[in-house]
Specification:
339 residues; 2 domains
Length: 339
Amino acid sequence: REATPAGLSDEEATAFQKARDEATTNAQTLDQQRAQEAANALSWNLLRAKVISASSLINPSPFSKSLSSYAKQLANLISSPSSSQSSGAIPSSVLDAAPHLAKLVSDLSDSHLEATWKLREAYATDKAIDSIIDLLQRQHMHEPIARSIWRDIIQDRYVNFEKLYVSILPGYDHHDEAKEFVSGYAIIKKDSVNVCHPLSDEADWIRVFGAWEAAVIMVYPHRKNELVSYHRYISDLFHAIPSPLTTICLDAEVRECYARSPFHLDDQSKMDIPLYNKRPLAANSPTSPLKRSSSICLNWNFSNCADPCPNKRRHGICSECGDKHRARDIDECFSALRA
């Protein structure tokens, strides 16, 4: 045990001794834990070896063959405790060698986001997702959801509300996923490729958000209160901001940010989105109709304006480079537009 340094005050000496005792206790606890884990692993391995040995029968009868088969299956199920840990868990030996990773793990201790993460990981395999989609599509919903949209929701990905709007309209084939043709090629129906319907007002957004919200809650039920609060917040913005397209763009931007790095959607401190301050989107400046007709439509470049432009601005021109495409369709232009 480390001796108490000389020259310390009574208070400093007491603090040093307390910290020393805590460090000693923690080290002893860790050593005991490692010893117990090693003993458990050895016990499991011995049990597995005994089961494998018992399954190796000489001249087995039909009954013994069946028993041997069951024994082998049991042996495959038996493993050391360390192998039963989640694939996403970091081994304790790694955390001991890299304590800074342990701090990162503690910083992620948000029970709400952790619940979403665990469900998403549980849904992760393709076979599981297909079965889940089959089940969800048999549920009675006010606005039925297409398979491709369900897949994005289950994987907690960004959902394009313009595509979702099209998918809930009558006549859309809800079995819209690509079907593999040959290696590297797939068959996709024309009406499900890049088909979008721009949202033009609050009513459009409410309808689409309601469909998305109901679907998300069905897959991630713990997010209900979060989405209800977020819905209320966006509704307040519709009433506070004259142009509904500004709020529609803000919502899309917030959900894109969530898809890249999840957070609580109802946390208003996370709503510091550059798009919110893009005043040109509001189209409130008192410019003349002639001047506006020669101006490039920023909403069209965000894919949030229908033809013809209700604000009499120019469509078909990128606001960043001047070429004939939407800024949103080219990563470099879209980054410049959002800057």
